[in-house]
């Protein structure tokens, strides 16, 4: 049975592994030059002395904002779990039905339940492996690109799912989703397309849900950082402002601008004006140390979805094969 | 008395609005070689799939050696070859054999090797590159090497040339002789079943129309020809009646005391019998006391 | 050893054909007491027929006392046929002649009689085995 699973899916495994490898080569190639400067930055932040920050000070402006198109490359990384779902999950059952080979496979001495379970376990192992590889790669990339300050793993919708503990869960979910779609649609190509579309919808849904994983912290916004603080890269997730007028009613920033027309439109002036009028202006944000909690939350949602979809698929196939 | 090789009780299967099988009740004794015949869409494939555990009945039950199809004990005693002889196209013949060996507790390695060698099927060729006939033979090899007690074959003769058909049936009969395998095979080519099958099941519009020992069925049916104006005696049941001029031709069940020389009676062949019933879907010959007691079955 | 053949056009069930061929061989002296009949597998291999059919034919012969099955060894001829007394043939011939004459007198011609004769033969051979 294990041999069969390997024999039947080895091409698909190799195809996804090849894409992952190609992406890795490219990302490593463009990230390696960032490793040295990142180390300089780390030294500066850790020691927080002028001497330690001197080398970084000299070069930092070169890296700020460089290659902001990298986010597009990173977006590619999130295609990987989609590929796993489309190439591993979707054909798993759909191709059997399409070719009629389920009548061969499911009339041998092994029950459909066992057949599917073994295959899903094999695919799950491959998915965890692939997801972990992707996470390791992308986390390293993200670590070394922090210094351009446009890449924040916490607030970047795409990067969030590409690093840390989320990818293995996302790959698992995608494979389970593909398998379920294949069971329902029974045409390989259509199932692959639907799997990709469905996964995209799920990711969009998660993006909408993510800000609500925890109630944001609030603080009075601080402007005009000085000295070394300017370099300090924060990976917190800013989620906009909470503005109240003097009656304590929440108002939009447009309304705030009407109450406090600032010459420059600078938030700082508006803040001071509002406070002067007895109002309030708070910045909502998720502190950087909540990143892990958010990741595990998303991981949990995806794993729960995986178990649910996998369970439904197994139950459906166990009950009926026609 | 061992349990029947295949037994269905009021088995029904509905696909959306269409009933593929309706209230099918059928018993196949072990050791029988059953010919499952009927027009396209009569439910032959559905019945075989139900016995193979590939579909869930809408209502009614199906059992193979008293086990529910699709469960481990049923899977290890039943082998099935589907109509399109599915194989994994990208697998070589040797890999398919390896797969089947791994998936079945019982596996006759020598039989598989001997059979594939005798048929000169290249083991290292991918299944997708074999001819249709070779694919059928590989699929059949995988099924018999499992040493099943019940072998279900959906249109096994369809892609075979006449010589291969004869050889196939010869070999199938050899398997039956050697292992006492029960066989249920569906076919359109009734002439290929003469002499090989010993039990006939006619399915028509999802229902069992005829189920009986072939020799007994042939012995119990006659073609009667005589004056159209005459009435037939009550001892015979008329299955079909056609008139040509003053003559009437009947396919009847039962022995007619035809003393009248204007009437002639002749035995009927299997094909004639089957076609007669298929023309009259309302006629039925099902195992009643009279038909089952004579031959207790294998 | 007897070698079976099949006449698909005869309309007779296969096992009846096998029974008749054994009896014919017994009558002609081709099979003698103690001779072994081919095993079911051998017949199956030769004729590509259902082994149950062979067994059925052998059971039929066993019932008539012509052969005996020895478990694990095979089926053997127990008794020969063909010693039907010549008087029986003469008696049959005499009876038939009388029948045919009566039929002629009643206005039936040769074809009519042959049709009835064939029908009777069919029915009796069926009746015997059913």
Short description:
The complex is a heterotrimer of chains A (322), B (298) and C (130). With 322 residues, chain A is α+β, with helices and mostly antiparallel strands. Chain A has helices spanning 2-47, 50-63, 70-77, 79-99, 102-105, 112-145, 157-162, 166-185, 188-209, 253-259, 267-276, 291-319; strands at residues 217-219, 237-244, 250-251, 280-286.
Task: Report the principal-axis shape of chain C.
Answer: elongated
Beta-strand segment tally of chain B: 13
User: How large a portion of the residues of chain B is in β-strands, by DSSP E?
Assistant: 25-35%
Q: Terminal Cα separation of chain B, in Å?
A: 11 Å
Kindly report the greatest chain-chain contact and the residue count on each side: B-C, 34 and 32 residues
Distance between the termini of chain C: 28 Å
Rg of chain C computed from alpha carbons, rounded to a whole number of angstroms:
18 Å
Task: Note the main sheet of chain B.
Answer: 6 strands, mixed
Helicity range of the residues of chain C?
A: 55-70%
Secondary structure: helix percent of chain B: 25-40%
Order of helices and strands of chain C: HEHHEEHH
Mean pLDDT of chain B: 88
Given helix and strand content, the structural type of chain C is mainly alpha
Structural class of chain B: alpha/beta
Calculate the mean pLDDT score of chain C and round it. 83
Given the structure, what is the number of helices of chain B?
Answer: 9
Descriptive notes:
The complex is a heterotrimer of chains A (about 325), B (about 300) and C (about 130). Chain A has 12 helices and 4 strands, in the order H-H-H-H-H-H-H-H-H-E-E-E-H-H-E-H. Chain A has about 325 residues and is of the alpha+beta class. In chain A, strands 1-4-2-3 form a 4-stranded antiparallel beta sheet. Chain B is of the alpha/beta class and about 300 residues long. Chain B is built from 9 helices and 13 strands. In chain B, strands 5-6-7-3-8-9 form a 6-stranded mixed beta sheet, sandwiched between helices. In chain B, strands 11-12-10-13 form a 4-stranded antiparallel beta sheet. In chain B, strands 2-1-4 form a 3-stranded antiparallel beta sheet. The longest helix of chain B is centred in the middle third of the chain and has 18 residues. The C terminus of chain B is likely disordered. With about 130 residues, chain C is mainly alpha-helical. Chain C contains 5 helices and 3 strands. The model of chain C has no long low-confidence stretch (mean pLDDT about 85). Chains A and B meet through helix 1 and helix 5 of A and helix 2, strand 5 and helix 3 of B.
